[in-house]
UniProtKB/TrEMBL annotation:
PROSITE patterns cross-referenced by the UniProt entry: ABC_TRANSPORTER_1, ABC_TRANSPORTER_2
Lineage: Bacteria, Bacillati, Actinomycetota, Actinomycetes, Pseudonocardiales
Ranges of residues in domain ABC transporter: 644-872
Keyword Flavoprotein found: no
Protein name: ABC-2 type transport system ATP-binding protein
Provenance organism: Actinocrispum wychmicini
Xref: SMART domains: AAA, PepX_C
Bias kind Low complexity: ranges: 246-260
Keyword terms: ATP-binding, Hydrolase, Membrane, Nucleotide-binding, Transmembrane, Transmembrane helix, Transport
Amino-acid biosynthesis recorded as keyword: no
Molecular function terms, GO-annotated: ATP binding; ATP hydrolysis activity; dipeptidyl-peptidase activity
Length: 940
């Protein structure tokens, strides 16, 4: 096998494994909180059109501390089992709900065949589970046989939530996640139409005769095949490790089999695994022909929530992912329209995840639990029928994108209102597009699950898209002058025609419409890796195309590009070569814009008091931060010449940890100040706040009178060695310094390379490769890097770490030479002797607090013990004994030691001179180390 082909096959297999894992919908929620008991039980259900078959469902019932309570049915994703949602169940039970999880038929340890949520099988299973709950004494009832019950789940589990609600009026509320409306449109989509589109933000065309989503369908089929006939050992292990059996569980109901039984699943029934013959035949048809017969389309529609949404009138919270090439936003849009039309109350949430981007975070999961709190228990604030969507910003330093949430009062288009759209003019002449023989080579937009592999960021995954020359027509906008926030599915009118002399393929024209964000540097990003496949049956044709539903801020100086490609490796393509022209039937792109209140997402919190309190706290925090930012760049003219002033500085962390507590000190120009304290004293936290790396909880930091905050301009006057430095080992020291300085964007003439290198004492070694440096040389190179630009304030955190005594001596000289230039140095160190020799002043911290500050000699003299070197020791001892308060006078050779006990050393010195004693030297008796130990004790 050729190596290139092998690499692509290996990559595809890895992606398939990752995505299959993503479909399991595992959420690693914390298990801390209220005590939750759990019992495993095998429930026998009757299924089939005549209810003449038995199926054994492996279930677990989670019980809260207080019962009776409302119940929640929690379904797993495709390819998973009840073990996939253990953490979800425990969190909901911790909120006070009785939670029932089960392995759907054909998965985990449940028997039966996979019918893809068929009415007579999976839906009937769920209905009988509702009946089972109605017979449990722990479950609150609305009427005999009618439990107070909600239902939720992700993907496959989201679909059963909708299907159960449409078939069983006993369901009181539901919250389906990243699921579909019409399986035929999800797997065989066609986003081209000649009709008017609905007025909602992300409506798809929903046209028939679409393009088969080959890659995703294959992975789904594999997920139903992989465990066929065998129990999933990893699932069993997960259950064994997380489920604690309730030894006092009540006796089983009549429809129960014995608890803890393990259903026999038998041998794999041929090439279709656990799928029913109807599902197997439908997939085989699509996989081998690339098309779906009407019989297959009808089957898929019958298995879809669209078949029952006209009967769903219970409160529904629809949660859909913005990074999802399997079930994009148009699927939730259709569910919202249909349930609203049926009279149901609907709330819509788009979050920055999905099958390609990850699971809902803690804040969104709490919001879902609050939905059930209100509608099942009547507790909390009415969650309303609003619309929320997440906006991904630029990547942070850690690689994760920043997120903000936009909240609108309603989902546009569900009532009389329509979605606002902004016209964006496009330029581009009609272009010839070819379909190569066999559809190969193909353009690349996505590989299923790839977003989950690289972090779920649409900004990252979208840059991997490839359009092949000759297979794409491009239409571009002018450069944006202001940010445009796309919030849903944009639309475009295309004119597609045949090329003279080239016959139209019998399967029609297949195209893939994409919307790119093109940066000022020409970088093209395909948001969320999404495309809109279309099929045009006859030519010429003018069609409206619903482009992918996305949430994307198009920044100022960026452009929008609409690309129409003839191939995409994720879909089944026509094999016959063809050529056709694609042009604009209307020269403008209609972009959906949904205004709303914008706020930064809160730090995830597991708040037992509910999302209302969390939102309130976040609003208060946002107001406080906004006020702080407004004042952040203020200047105190009186401190313009002072390198550093810290006033009442504090930093607290969740859990009550107070790393820095009301710290205040001042550093004057020309000082070398040592920051001392035992481990955990708060030294590094203080330096990180000084550098703007973390935000203080309270207090202020001023550098040359300017208040410090993240990104403050005054930080350019600080050189730092706080986080540790990383150098490229194959480059010289000088090349590393120049590379670092170039990254700052400042002119070379401001770097002062020669001065920094000379002060650091690197000499000729600066031209050697860094891999040849000793630890001491690396430390000096790091100091030189911090000195670039000759900053007015040099901040160093443990610069002597890992150095031997000669290297420490050299480092001490480096600091002294830098201070000799008239600048200021702040150094944190645990080597007290070095601080005593290198620093002029010292600040001592303990448990986040200031315990001493001043000149090194004064701190060392705390307690009053002094030493005088004199020519007449006996006479000196007599004089000192005669001074008020002086005690413990001792003679040691030419030295006289005394405890002055508050008497100024200068007064004692004056008395000795007046008595005719010649004093050669006077100073504190103790070392800095003695004073330090007295101030902080053992450091605990």
């Amino acid at each position: 096998m050729p190596k290139t082909r092998f690499r692509w096959l290996a990559f595809a297999l890895v992606a398939a494994i990752v995505v299959a894992g993503a479909l399991i919908w595992v959420r690693p929620w914390s298990s801390s909180g209220p005590v939750v008991s759990a019992e495993d039980r095998t429930i026998v259900v009757k299924d089939g059109p005549n209810r003449d078959q038995d199926t054994q469902l492996d279930t677990t019932l989670f019980l809260p501390e207080r019962t009776p309570a409302p119940a929640v049915l929690l379904a797993h994703g495709f390819g998973g089992s009840k073990a996939s949602v253990v953490s979800d169940a425990r969190e909901l039970a911790g909120r006070g709900f009785v939670v029932l999880t089960w392995s759907a038929r054909g998965f985990g340890r449940s028997s039966g065949q996979i019918g893809l949520n068929a009415r007579d099988y999976e839906v009937e299973d769920a209905k009988q589970l509702v009946t089972w709950l109605a017979n449990r004494p722990e479950v609150q009832l609305d009427a005999p046989g009618d439990p107070r019950v909600g239902v939720t789940g992700g993907s496959y589990g989201g679909a059963i939530s909708l299907l159960l609600a449409g078939n069983d009026p006993r369901v009181d509320a539901l919250a389906p996640v990243i699921t579909y409306n019409d399986l035929s449109q999800a797997l065989i989509p066609n986003f081209a139409t000649t009709d008017a589109l609905p007025g909602t933000p992300s409506a798809g065309a929903g046209s028939p005769d679409g393009v088969f989503k080959r890659s995703w369908a294959g992975i789904l089929f594999a997920a139903g095949m992989g465990g066929a006939g065998f129990a999933d050992p990893s699932a069993d292990a997960a259950e064994a490790g997380t489920i604690q059996r309730d030894q006092n569980a009540p006796a089983p109901n009549p429809i129960d089999a014995a608890p803890q039984s393990s259903p026999s699943r038998g041998a794999p029934p041929g090439p279709c695994g656990r799928f029913t013959p109807e599902i197997c035949a439908a997939y085989t048809e699509m996989a081998t022909t690339g098309r779906a017969s009407q019989q297959t389309v009808d089957l898929l529609k019958s298995l879809s929530p669209a078949a029952v949404t006209s009967r769903i009138t219970k409160p529904t919270m629809l949660v859909q992912g913005e990074v999802d090439t399997l079930f994009p936003l148009d699927q939730a849009d259709a569910n919202a329209r249909q349930i609203t039309q049926a009279g149901g109350k609907v709330k819509v949430v788009w979050y920055s995840g999905g099958h390609d981007g990850g699971k809902p975070g803690p804040a969104l999961r709490t919001e879902m639990a609050d939905w059930f709190d209100f509608y099942l228990r009547g507790q909390g604030k009415d969650p309303g029928t609003g619309f929320e969507y997440a906006v991904q910003g630029a990547l942070r330093a850690q690689g994760a994108p920043s997120i903000r949430t936009v909240t609108a009062p309603t989902y546009p288009g569900l009532g009389a209102d329509q979605t606002s759209r902004q016209a964006v003019p496009l330029r581009g002449q009609p272009q010839v597009v070819i379909n190569p023989p066999g559809g190969n080579p193909s353009s690349v937009s996505s590989m299923p699950g790839l977003g989950a592999v690289i972090g779920g960021s649409s900004r990252t995954a979208g840059r991997l898209a490839i359009d092949l020359p000759g297979q794409v027509a491009r239409f571009t906008s002018d450069t944006m002058t202001n940010q445009l926030l796309i919030s849903g599915s944009s639309t475009i009118r295309l004119h597609v025609d045949a090329v003279p002399g080239v016959p139209t393929p019998p399967d029609g024209v297949v195209l893939f419409a994409k919307l790119y964000d093109v940066g000022s540097d020409g970088t093209r990003t395909l948001p969320s890796s999404l495309v809109s496949p279309i099929r045009v049956s006859s030519l010429p044709a003018d069609v409206t195309v619903a482009l992918p539903g996305i949430v994307r801020p198009i920044e100022s100086q960026h452009r929008i590009e609409v690309a129409i490609a003839s191939t995409d490796q994720a879909y089944a393509l026509p094999s016959q070569p063809a050529a056709f022209t694609v042009g604009l039937a209307d020269p403008s792109l209609q972009v959906p814009v949904v205004p709303g209140a914008r706020s930064a997402n809160p730090v995830p919190m597991f708040a037992v008091v509910g999302i209302g309190v969390v939102i309130g706290l976040c609003v208060i925090a946002a107001v406080v931060l906004a006020l702080r930012r407004r004042r952040a760049d203020d200047l105190d003219p009186e401190l313009a010449g002072v390198p550093l002033v810290i006033e009442d500085l504090s930093k607290s962390y969740p859990g009550g940890l107070r790393a820095v507590d009301s710290l205040s000190f001042r550093v004057e120009q020309g000082q070398v100040l040592g920051l001392l304290g035992p481990n955990g004293a708060g030294k590094t936290t203080t330096l990180r706040m000084l550098m703007g790396l973390i935000r203080p909880t309270d207090g202020t930091i001023r550098v040359f009178g300017h208040r410090v905050y993240s990104g403050a301009p005054v930080l350019s006057r600080i050189g730092s060695f706080v986080e540790g430095s990383g150098f490229l080992p194959h480059l010289s020291g000088e090349a590393n310094l120049r590379l670092y300085w170039a990254a700052t964007g400042r002119p070379d003439e401001q770097a002062h390379f020669a001065e920094a290198i000379e002060i650091a004492g690197l000499g000729a070694a600066i031209r050697r490769r860094v891999r040849t440096y000793s630890q001491g040389m690396r430390q000096r190179l790091a100091i030189a890097q911090a000195m670039l630009g000759l900053p007015d304030l040099l901040v160093l955190d443990e610069p002597t770490n890992g150095l031997d005594p000669p290297q420490i001596h050299q480092m001490r000289e480096v600091l002294k030479r830098y201070a000799a230039t008239g600048r200021t140095v702040l150094v944190s160190s645990h080597l007290l002797a070095e601080v005593e020799q290198a620093c002029t002043h010292v600040v001592v911290m303990h448990r986040g607090k200031l315990v001493a500050a001043g000149e090194v000699a004064d701190i060392a003299a705390v307690g009053g013990e002094a030493t005088f070197r004199v020519d007449q020791p006996a006479e000196a001892a007599t004089v000192l004994n005669g001074l008020p308060g002086v005690t413990d006078v001792e003679i040691e050779g030419t030295q006289v030691h005394a405890n002055l006990d508050g008497t100024p050393r200068a007064d004692a010195l004056t008395a000795l001179v007046q008595a005719g004693v010649s004093v050669e030297q006077a100073g504190p008796r103790r070392r800095l180390e003695d004073a330090f130990l007295e101030l902080v004790g053992d450091g605990k």
